[in-house]
Amino acid sequence: MNAQLQRNRDAIDQIDQQVVELLNKRVLHDGGADEDTVLAKIPQFNNGPLTDTAIQSIYRALMIAGLDSKAVLVAVDITDSIDEKIVCLLNQRVQHAAEIGKIKFSNGADYYDPTREAQVMEKIASLNSGPITISTLQSVYREVISASIALEKRLVIAYLGPESTFTHQAAIRNFGVSLEYQASKTIPDVFTEVENGHADYGVVPIENSTEGAVFHTMDMLVDSDLHICSQVYLPIEHCLISRSCVAEINEVHSKDQALGQCRQWLHTHLPNAEWVDVVSTADAVRSAKKSLGIAAVASELSAQHYGVPVKVRGIQDREDNVTRFLVVGKTQVRPYGGGRDKSSLVISLKDEVGALERTLRAFATRGINLSKIESRPSRKKAWDYYFFIDLVGHYEDENVQSALSDLKDYCPFVKWLGSYPEVGRV
Question: Among 186, 137, 141, which Cα is nearest to 161's?
Answer without folding.
Answer: 186
